[in-house]
Structure formats: C-alpha cells, structure tokens
Design brief:
With 294 residues, the chain is of the alpha/beta class. The chain has 13 helices and eight strands. It folds into two domains: 119 residues, Conserved hypothetical protein from pyrococcus furiosus pfu- 392566-001, ParB domain, CATH 3.90.1530.30; 112 residues, no CATH class. The chain is elongated and about 80 Å long.
Amino acid sequence: MKKLFGLGKGLNSLIPDAKHITPDIKKDSVFYVEINKVRPNPQQPRHDFDDEGLKELSKSIRKYGVLQPLLVSKVEEESNRGMNVYYQLIAGERRLRASKQAGLPHVPVIIRDDLSPEGGDKRVALEVALIENLQRTDLNPLEEAEAYDRLAKEFGLTQKEIAEKVAKSREVVANAIRLLNLPKDIRESLRSGKLSRAHARALLAFSDETKQREMYKQILAGGVSSREVESIASTAKKGKSSAKKDSKFLELEKNLADTLKTPVLIHSTEKGGKIVIRFATLQDLNKIAKSIID
C-alpha cells in the first residue's frame, strides 16, 4: 500500500452537513491498494448497476484513472499463514466495478478505520454508503426511495434531516418514499424503467389498488399522460367515478382499437370529452389516418 496525497475534507465532502465541518478538520490521506484486496460492501444499498453506464465509466477510468477515491475500512483476519489484510468498501462500488472492468491493478482509497466492521460504527458506515449513493444522478426512482426509507427506519432520521444530508427538499424525499406504497409489480416496473417517476406518482392519487392497476395498464398502453391520470383520480375523488364513465365507452374503445390496430382511450367530461389514439411512428400515424379517412 502506497500513500499518495491528501484529499482535504474527507468524509464531510461526502455528507454535505455544515454542522460537521470545522476549520481545523484533519485531512484524510489517499493510498493506492491492490484492487483484489477491496471487497464489496455486504450491506450495499444499491442493487441495480447499468451495464452500459459501467462500460462508459470503465473507458473513462482506463483513460484518466479513478478521479474520486473509494472510501474503505481496513480489516485484519487471521489465517493458517498468518494475518491477512483486506479493505471493505464503504462507498464507491460503481467505481470499483468499473475499475475491475478497466483492468486496473490498484485503486485509490481513503481508509477509515473508525468505520471498520471490527469495532467501528457499522451504522455510520451504512449511512455513508446510503448518502453517497443518493448523491448520484443515475439512481432509478425506486433505489432512491428505498435508500430514503432505510435512512428513516434504520437511523431514525426525519424527512427534513434526510433532505438536509442529501441537499434536496423535504418534499422530494417525501414524494420518493411514497412510491414504496405502490404494489410490488408496479414498483418493479418503476425500477426497470418501464414506468416513469411521473406516472408512478400520479398512480398514488388513487387510494384503491384496483383503480391503480386499471390505470397502470392504460399507462403501459401509452395512451394516457401523468397529468391525465391525476385528473381522472381527482374526478373520482369528487364522487364522479371515472371508472363508471369509462365503462360506458369500453366496448367502443375496443372496437376502435381493433379497427385502428392501436390502443384507444375515451375520456368523458361534463362538457364533452376526448379520444386518445396512440401511435409510435409516422408510419403508424399514416396507417391510422388512412383507416379513419377511408
């Protein structure tokens, strides 16, 4: 292990909390360690890593190196051959994976022995890992919601405290956590990107799971926007059941969809209504127009 240079604020640069920043803070040193001695965090809060994104990061690391050191703790374990030393990752698994893909023999790390699993504060280590992940821009909405939820349940943090730590508004945190109230299969669609964050939030406007699922199917068909979902939910809450209105046009929707070969939705209002016809390409649009005109 070779010492490289001083980084500056260290852990506080990962957690933007002004209360913990002091003028005489000790500088953390950066070392190069063998990459095969760095072990993943067993409590890694992030589960999904985009393969294409890792390939791009790997190319960048191969060209420029690892620009932000990994945060690790040093662990010693006895074996028949003596004492073995390895480093348990606290934050930076995406960088570690990309570095392995790039074939790097060594990676830069900041060693925090106070966060070691051998007597260190495991809760702080997990909190740092959660917050480090939340400060990334490529988390999917469900990963973000799960991380906020863990900070609240496992660390007793309020939504306001979480918001301060990740430099976001309390409303953003609250809205994200609410996504966990959706049915499991709908949450998984959000995780995979099949369902957008806006549509998922709109579905929460329905308190009834059956209504959520009906609207979810229509969203997947591509014929309804998030604002339209919220509008339908609002109408239903006022006692003007959108389900009943839609049921009156169910057969007509089916007939139109069969004729036009594309999903069709009919939305009625007190002053009329509208028909939503979905198309994916200009070629589809030409076929639909030809069917209507002919």
